[in-house]
Amino acid sequence: MRKAASLLSAGFACLLLGGPGVALEVPRGAESAGPQERPLDSYALPTGPWADGVLPTQVFEGRVSRQAWRVPVPGTTTLELLAPLRAQLEADGWEIVFACQGRACGGFDFRFSIDVLPAPDMVVDLARFRFLSATRDGSGLSVLVSRTEAAGYIQIIQAGAEAELEDVTASARAVSSAASVSLGEALETDGRFILSDLAFETGSASLGDARFASLATLADYLRANPERRVALVGHTDATGSLEGNIALSKRRAGSVRARLVEVHGVPAGQMDAEGMGYLAPITTNLTPEGRDANRRVEVILTSTE
After folding, report:
1. What is the DSSP code (8-state) at residue 163?
2. Cis amide bond preceding 72, omega within 30
3. Which of 304, 260, 299, 232 is nearest to 72 (CA)?
4. Domain residues for 225?
5. Full-prediction pTM beyond 0.90?
6. Which residues, at least 6 apart from 61, have a Cβ–Cβ distance to it below 8 Å?
7. 186 and 274 part of one domain
8. Do 264 and 236 fall within a single domain?
9. Are residues 28 and 148 in the same domain?
């Protein structure tokens, strides 16, 4: 965890909210889903916890911008994600009107009453999330952070005259030096890394035609370290039989291995492909967000010779 914290503290980079006087930073190497903007809309900004069947809100009208990021650093805490953003808001003249954590927010009812971008863009673990609301000069802004075992997640929504998100993180979809450090550090210190930007539908082993930043980063690591050998281990959600899911998870790992060989030129002998089915979940399978997170492929460092 302290290794993850050091990567975060050293890695905040310019990103986020364009617009008059609004400039936040999220961790370097964070992967953006791309901003979503409506030039004329409204947003009900939560201003207190869910209680007695009611979520207090203040409605802001005008431009509404939404954006989410995945921070591919295992072990990141929600406080490590939120505290630097809160400090930046306060330094920039925003008034924090409400802040909470997990159950104190209202737990399940709060989470499903607020505006959250769908997975995999934003994943919220009901036991591990923090939220804050802020206002300034007729604009409202909310920050929601959460984490899984594999990564942290940040969502920012801004509404009012100032709200305009600029997607300057497109380069994070390609290989970035910070992302390489995160993957390499995780493999060298923890022996494992989750390829958290891969996307599998329930029952499917297809990767599609997308170019995934994590695969390019892993390919760079393996080419730079030809003595390293890894196992690609597929995992599924809990839909279906164990036997079927083990077979499916192995096909998913095989799809990743084939992509690394055919597209990225990684020697096939450096990689094995295995499957665990639903035997090693990283979060609950009782929610759509949890099932999305559990459908994944992990890299396990198996040999250094």
Report:
1. -
2. no
3. 299
4. 174-303
5. no
6. 40, 41, 42, 159, 160
7. yes
8. yes
9. yes
